[in-house]
Write a structure and sequence with these properties.
With about 450 residues, the protein is mostly helical. The protein has three domains: about 220 residues, Orthogonal Bundle (Hypothetical protein af1432), CATH 1.10.3210.10; about 110 residues, putative deoxyguanosinetriphosphate triphosphohydrolase fold, CATH 1.10.3410; about 80 residues, no CATH class. The chain is built from 21 helices and no strands. Helix 18 packs across helix 21. The protein is globular.
Amino acid sequence: MLKHSNNKGMNWEQLLNATRLGKEGTKVTDIEALRSEFQRDYDRIIFSSPFRRLQNKTQIFPLPGSVFVHNRLTHSLEVASVGRSLGNTVAQYLKKLYPNYIPELFSEIGTIVSSASLSHDLGNPPFGHAGEKSISAFFKNGNGLKYKETVSENEWDDLTNFEGNANALRLLSHKFNGRREGGFALTYATLASLIKYPFSSANRTKKDKYGYFESEKEIFERIANEVGLTKLSDNDLIFARHPLVYLVEAADDISYQIMDIEDAHKLKILSTNETVDILMTFFNKEKDAGFFVKKDEIFQQVTDTNEQIAFLRASVINLLVHKAANIFIENQQQVLEGSFTGSLVDYLTGTYKNAMESCADIAYKKVYLHRSVVEVEITGYNVLNTLMDEFTKAIFDPKAEYSKKLLALLPLQYQGDYSTDYEKLRAIIDFISGMTDLYALDLYKLIKGIGIQ
């Protein structure tokens, strides 16, 4: 067993815990085996049904017709790719910083970050953020308000502030009906790297972000203790993030900011000249003179505008990966101490900071408020509100004939003899949040009698 490093706070040996949730007594495979425990995590996620369903879940724009834009699946794959690059870059630094550690241990960081990145959107409901808001609104000011007095205060916070991040942890760790202990039985390191907000809804951020539902409180605490997260409050379960969370978050930030711009170009929301100008703001003519020469050469050889934009997009992502990795490396001590705050991209400076802010501003004004995006949000709000209303009525009145027919649609994993109202409501949310956009819409039409021949 390796001794702890001399760093204060968290240590890498414990942080990279390869033990599996629900399989604590099982021997961990040799790190030099054909597939390490962390590579098995990656494979379990990518071959899973919830991951495949992401192909029919909205990212920003409506699911593609003649022009292919990103859905949750393609976004997650790209975040995983960027995350692997970030993890591998940081791993090279850590191998030199800690020469007495097993080098193969640090070599797995890229896989851990990639696995957590694959998982980061698994808990998102149909229709993107509009789906989250719709589920929350059902309890805040819809027909779900009547359940307020039947659940605890913390449970009500969960219901009125549905959070995709917390739902991802539940999906991966909860023992659903007919399923095994520990859910996907992922390693503690991978699960901890997924928890972007290591606290409950009672301590949520100003943006209503938090990391686990009340139903997963014990699982969260077990994960935090197993990987040795630093506790920040004696009164509440508030912990510092696992260091690799910062890399997962940066991979997501970099990917969606840049890819949304490319999608907007494909859909002709942004012109080619506008898109080129936006992406070129990441480069400084003096510091990056060589890139400007290369860009001109590429544009002379490649005349397809989509390929030109793809080249610039790839160049920007590569640049930001190195910048974000360097920020992590420079602040590694603060990260381990639990004193680092914000995201890695928040620490960009100069040209890079201005370019990211400009990207975010343009995306908000020209992309996120585009009519096609707003239409999806309106549809999602009404579809999920209806489904939540119908199925919650059914689960609380299961003997009614209509209820029996609705509840027969629930897969086995969401059925059970629930003893509390919170568990019943959680089961319905599990069912609806796991739907694809298309299935949710079809079920909505079925309930409303739309399109019946």
